[in-house]
Write a structure and sequence with these properties.
253 residues, mainly alpha, 9 helices
Length: 253
C-alpha cells in the first residue's frame, strides 16, 4: 500500500485566503480611491467658490467706486460754480449735492469662503501651481486695502456732514443755494471731497489689477464661466458652503 498525503485542503485554503486578501485590498483600495476622489472634488469646489467670491467682491467694489466717481463729478461741478453761480444748477441739483455727500453705503462681504480656503491644506495640495495660491492671497490683500480706504472716505464724509448738521441743518437755511454755499465753504467738507477724488482712481486701478490676477487663475486652472455661474446659482438658492458645512463634510469623509 502506498502512503500519501492529501494536500488538496491546503490548496483550497490558500485560494480562499488569497481571495479574502484580494477582496480586502480591493475594498480598502476602492474606499481610499473614493475618499481621495471626494476630497479632490471638494477641494476643486472650494477653489471655484473662492474665485467666484473674489469676482463678487470685485464687482461690489466696482459698483461702490462707480458711485464715488459719479459723485466726484457732481461735487466738482458745483465747486466750480462757487460762490456766486450756484443758482444755475437749480434747487433739485443743489439738494442732491448735500444728499449724496451725506449718503452712506452699506455692503456685505462673505468671509467664510476665504477662511475655508486659507485653512484648508487639502485645497492647497490640490493646486499644482503655487502661483495660483499666491495670486489668490494677493487678490484678497488688495480688496482688503480697497475696502479699508473706502470706509475711511465714508467716515470722513460722515464726520464732516455731522459737524455741518450740528451747526445748522440744511432745511433751516433760506434756500438750497444758501445751504450748499455754507456747506461747501467748510474746510472739512472740501477736504473729504478732495480726498475722495484723489483716492478713488487709485482704488479703481488696484481693483482692476486684482481682477486681472483672478482672471489669470481661472485661465491656469481651466475654470469655465459655466462653473462659476453654477456657484452663483447655488448662492441664490442659499446652498453656499459655510465654515460649518465644510467641517461637517470633512468629518463624513
Amino acid at each position: 500500500m502506498h502512503k500519501f498525503i492529501d494536500y488538496s485542503w491546503w490548496k483550497d485554503v490558500t485560494i480562499a485566503t488569497t481571495g479574502t486578501i484580494i477582496g480586502i485590498v480591493v475594498t480598502f483600495g476602492t474606499t481610499a480611491w473614493l475618499e481621495d476622489k471626494t476630497r479632490k472634488e471638494m477641494a476643486d469646489k472650494t477653489v471655484i467658490m473662492t474665485l467666484h467670491n473674489l469676482d463678487s467682491s470685485m464687482d461690489n467694489l466696482s459698483n461702490l467706486l462707480g458711485e464715488m466717481q459719479s459723485n466726484d463729478t457732481l461735487f466738482h461741478r458745483v465747486l466750480s460754480l462757487m460762490p456766486d453761480s450756484l443758482g444755475v444748477m437749480g434747487n433739485d441739483s443743489l439738494e442732491m449735492v448735500v444728499s449724496r455727500f451725506a449718503s452712506m453705503r452699506t455692503y456685505t462681504t462673505d468671509k467664510s469662503t476665504r477662511r475655508i480656503f486659507s485653512s484648508s491644506f487639502e485645497v492647497w495640495q490640490n493646486i499644482d501651481d503655487a502661483k495660483v495660491i499666491s495670486r489668490i492671497g494677493n487678490c484678497y490683500s488688495m480688496l482688503d486695502l480697497c475696502y479699508k480706504e473706502y470706509d475711511k472716505i465714508e467716515q470722513l464724509r460722515a464726520e464732516a456732514f455731522k459737524a455741518y448738521w450740528n451747526e445748522c441743518p440744511p432745511q433751516d437755511y433760506a434756500d438750497a443755494e444758501e445751504a450748499v454755499r455754507v456747506f461747501l465753504k467748510r474746510n472739512d467738507v472740501r477736504y473729504a471731497i478732495d480726498m475722495q477724488a484723489n483716492i478713488t482712481p487709485i482704488l479703481v486701478s488696484v481693483n482692476d489689477i486684482a481682477r486681472q490676477l483672478n482672471e489669470r487663475n481661472k485661465e491656469v486652472l481651466g475654470i469655465t464661466q459655466d462653473e462659476l455661474d453654477e456657484v452663483g446659482n447655488l448662492l441664490d438658492k442659499n446652498e453656499y458652503f459655510t465654515d460649518e458645512d465644510y467641517r461637517n463634510q470633512k468629518k463624513q469623509n
